[in-house]
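Input.
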Amino acid sequence: MKTKLNLLLILLLCITFSGFAATTADLEYKEQSIDNEFAKIEKLEKYLAIHPEATLESIKKTNPELLEGFDLIATTETNFSPTKEMPIVGGFWWGCCLGIVGLGLVYFITDNDRDQVRQALWGCIIATLLWGIGGFWDPFGWF
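Output.
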């Protein structure tokens, strides 16, 4: 019984993977279309090598045929700019809960944002004082 179940499982896996392998229409290599796309880029590169002062606007006005077939994005926004706020909670709580490690995380994540680092430092100092006082003062006699 167990061997029949294993064979059935293997058969189902083979059918599944053969179905994935059969759908390769999107992966076809079309050398001519690739060469055509690179030829457009080469024309633009040659023009820019001859005219290094050219801008996108000047090319649009003088030689718009060089930009045909290109989808250009007008903005250059990226997600790689450093954040100015800590994720989840503020810098104070990172410093308070994680101490020196939290202070270091805030420093590196916010790219030395002075306000956030100062808050993390205060959180670290307050947590250290509370743990220090708690170590000396034990009203319930637990320690």
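Helices lie at 2-22, 31-50, 56-62, 91-98, 100-109, 114-136.
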